[in-house]
Amino acid sequence: MATQAVATVVSYLLQLMMFAIVVRALLSWFMPAQSNAVVRFLVEITEPILAPLRRFTTFGAIDFSPIVALLLLQLLQQWLTSVL
Question: Residue 78, Cα to own-chain centre: how many angstroms?
């Protein structure tokens, strides 16, 4: 029972992080970085995941780190829920 609760909480946290990455990516097209508190908050919580990926996933001016992060988080979510 406790293991299932932990798996559910972890799954929700990973989904929340994936949602934050998608919102940040969409807002980056319409709002300049650091333009308001919401954007700053999204940058602060997603940057620890995106920054290490950016070194390997940026080609010219195109940054694929959000896509790679979403795929990795989804794989992690599936793996953790199957293990727990």
Answer: 15
